């Protein structure tokens, strides 16, 4: 019913349990858990800081892109207004030179 591998797993688990029990009595597990938690918190802070930097940079890029789009739209609008007058002048010049 139980194979050799089952017995090995049970024995291994028992050894691990005894080891943790011995370490726990010395406070080693607690110390390791505290250090691991502190390390995890530092890593979380670092990741949050990098993520905030990315969000800030993306916000700056978005603002610059919107600014550039407004500039481009204003330039197109002014060029369109100028083009009408320039087109009329050029047409008149060409028509005059064609009549001559």
Rg over CA atoms, rounded to whole Å, is 38 Å
Task: Give me the oligomer status.
Answer: single chain
Mean pLDDT across residues: 83
What's the N-to-C terminus distance? 114 Å
Say how many strands there are: 0
Question: What characterizes the major β-sheet?
Answer: none
Q: Specify the overall morphology.
A: rod-shaped
Q: Number of folding domains?
A: 1
H/E order of the elements?
HH
Low-confidence stretches: none
The portion of residues assigned to helices is over 70%
What's the helix count? 2
Descriptive overview:
The structure is a single chain. This protein is an all-alpha fold. The protein contains two helices and no strands. 0% of the residues are buried. The chain has one domain. The protein is rod-shaped. The model has no long low-confidence stretch (mean pLDDT 83). It has helices at residues 4-25, 28-99.
Helix-strand blueprint:
Elements: H1 4-25, H2 28-99
Short descriptors:
100 residues; rod-shaped; mainly alpha
Brief summary of the model shown:
Helix content is 94%, strand content 0%. It is built from two helices and no strands.
């Amino acid at each position: 019913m139980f194979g050799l591998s089952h017995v090995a797993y049970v024995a291994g688990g028992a050894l691990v349990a005894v080891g943790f029990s011995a370490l726990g009595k010395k406070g080693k597990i607690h110390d390791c858990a505290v250090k691991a938690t502190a390390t995890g918190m530092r890593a979380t802070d670092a990741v949050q800081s990098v993520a905030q930097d990315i969000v800030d940079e993306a916000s700056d890029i978005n603002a610059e892109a919107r600014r550039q789009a407004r500039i481009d739209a204003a330039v197109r609008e002014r060029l369109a207004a100028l083009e009408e007058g320039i087109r009329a002048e050029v047409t008149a010049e060409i028509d005059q030179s064609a009549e001559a």
